[in-house]
Amino acid sequence: MFYTKQTLKHFRNPHNYGEIKNPDGEGEAGNIICGDLMNLYLKVKKTKNGVEIIDAVKFKTYGCAAAIATSSVITDLVKGKTVDQALKIGKKDIIDTLNGLPPIKIHCSILAIDALGEAIYQYLFKNNRPIPLSLQKTHERIEIGKKEIKERYAKWLSISKK
Ligand code: FES
To answer: 76-81: which pairs have CB atoms within 8 A and are 24 or more residues apart?
Structure first.
């Protein structure tokens, strides 16, 4: 077996799977290579000290075992964090939590980071908050990738109906 025990645990019993109704931020990201998609939903709340933290997070992933495991891990990592702290989570944090990922599966962890970035982007946008330039650039890249994936699926559907 080439997945770690931690990865298999998260894949078989993913944490925070599902959807949040009326989320404060929702992000969708796709992987241009394999066509896998992930949606991530956030609820943000203010603590007694006036600090905004990510209070609830859920995900839906249509993808491989590594995509599901990394999605599960990222939801654990962002819960209770501020938006700024959540934006600092990178693929190394996810991979370390899983005690490693096969090199061929590292791109799957980026799907989770992209979906989180998109959910935060939407949250900041909806609330008229400044959006960091790096997040704006990531958003543009993800939008292009999603368009491409959706076009490929539409083409495949039209062929498969023939
Ligand atoms: S193979 Fe598509 S995200 Fe893993």
So the answer is: 76/15, 76/16, 78/42, 78/54, 78/116, 79/16, 79/54, 79/55, 80/53, 80/54, 80/55, 81/53, 81/54
